[in-house]
Specification:
mainly alpha, 8 helices, 81% helix, transmembrane helix, membrane, transmembrane
Length: 205
């Protein structure tokens, strides 16, 4: 066996033992997932505004009783102004997540995943920030209800809504942080993007 044959044998051995390259991310599946998320965002916006409409109808129905008490009227005015700010903030953030890239490159759709994850984290912060101003709501419904039954169910519903919002925010934050970590890992592997902080260290050096 000459040197050429030995070299060929070594190359074959190295090739057999070489680890298989990881599969490239499926951009088609990524696009399909983004389109499903888009539909979910649209349905969420419609559902939120439908609930807001129900709240307005209930307010109109109880308006004579609300205006009969100065404290109750003050609470309803505060609640209405607060909910207008909340609805506009949530809807504006969700609408920003609807924009999708026109092409089919991995960079564009990874960028969309990163942008939607960051917008979801913004919704998490909005949920947490807007929960605290509404903490008096269970007590307001408890003391202003028409009877004991209304006080019980309305206080329970409001408390469950506030607690559910905080639990949703905690779970959403955990999932979106995992999503950002996955997107960053794919970008480093397939797009040669530097790790966070690398560019700053290079500039400083």
């Amino acid at each position: 066996m000459n040197d050429a044959d030995e070299w060929a044998r070594l190359q074959d051995a190295w090739g057999a033992d070489a680890p298989a390259a990881p599969p490239m991310p499926d951009v088609t599946a990524m696009i399909a997932r983004a389109r499903r998320q888009r539909h979910l965002i649209l349905w969420t916006i419609a559902g939120e505004w439908a609930l807001a409409l129900v709240a307005v109808v209930m307010l109109v129905r109880d308006w004579p009783r609300a205006t009969a008490n100065g404290y109750m009227l003050l609470w309803w005015v505060y609640f209405l102004l607060f909910m207008v700010v909340v609805m506009i903030s949530f809807t504006w953030t969700r609408l920003a997540a609807l924009r999708e890239p026109a092409g089919a490159s991995l960079r564009d759709w990874l960028g969309l995943r990163r942008r939607r994850a960051l917008l979801s984290l913004r919704l998490v912060r909005l949920t947490r920030w807007t929960t605290f101003p509404m903490l008096p709501a269970p007590f307001i419904t408890l003391f202003t209800a028409r009877d004991a039954w209304s006080a019980t169910w309305s206080t329970a519903v409001v408390t469950m809504l506030l607690a559910g919002g905080l639990l949703w925010a905690r779970d959403k934050a955990r999932r979106m942080k995992a999503e950002l970590a996955e997107v960053d890992a794919l970008a480093r592997e397939w797009l040669d993007e530097p790790q966070e902080g690398t560019q700053d260290r290079t500039t400083t050096a």
